[in-house]
Amino acid sequence: MQPQIKKGKLEPFSKMNHHFDVEGIVRYSMLQHGDFNDKAFHLAVHVITNDYYNDPKNFSETHHHDFDEINVVIPSSEHFKYEIELDGDVQVLSAPFSIFIPSGCPHRALPLEGLGVFICIQFRPQ
User: Fold this and answer.
1) Which of 55, 57, 63, 99 could crosslink 18 through cysteines, CB 3.0-4.6 Å?
2) What kind and span of H or E run contains 98?
3) Distance, CA of 21 to CA of 71 (rounded, Å)
C-alpha cells in the first residue's frame, strides 16, 4: 500500500447514530471506513469552542458499539474537563487523558469546562 492523504471535512454530529447537533462543537470527519484500501477504522476530531458554553447540551446519548474505540482529549486552555460515562460509572476527568472503550461498553462524553480537542478513533470490523 502506498502512502495516501485524505482531506478532512466538516460533518454534523447528527450524521452519527445516538448523536445530536450542538452549537460550539466543530466536528471534523478525518477518515472513514474504507478510505484507504478498505482499512477498518474511523477518525473524527471535535473542537470545543467558547460558544458551546453559551447553551451547553449533551451531544450524545449513552450508547455502545460492536467495535473498540479510543478517545484522546487534549486541552487548549488551562482547565479542560469532561464528564465521562463508561458502563454506568460517571467520572469527571481533567485533560489530557485517553480512554479505551471496548466493544459493547455503554458510554457517553460531555464537556464541562474549558477548551480543547476530543479525538475519536474507532476500530470497526471489516
Assistant:
1) 63
2) strand 97-101
3) 19
- CA distance linking residue 111 with residue 117, whole number of Å: 10
pLDDT tens readout for residues 62-104: 999 999 999 999 999 999 999 999 999 999 999 999 999 999 9
Q: Helix, strand, or coil here: 53? A: helix
If you write DSSP's letter for every residue of 9-22 in order, what string do you get? EE--GGGSTTB---
What is the enclosing helix (H) or strand (E) of 86? Answer: strand 81-86
CA separation for the pair 44, 31 (Å, rounded): 7
Rounded Cα gap, residues 33 and 10, in angstroms: 17
What residues contact 39, with CB distance under 8 A and at least 6 apart?
Answer: 33
pTM metric for this prediction: 0.89
Q: How far apart are CA 62 and CA 39, in angstroms?
A: 27
C-alpha cell at 21: 447537533
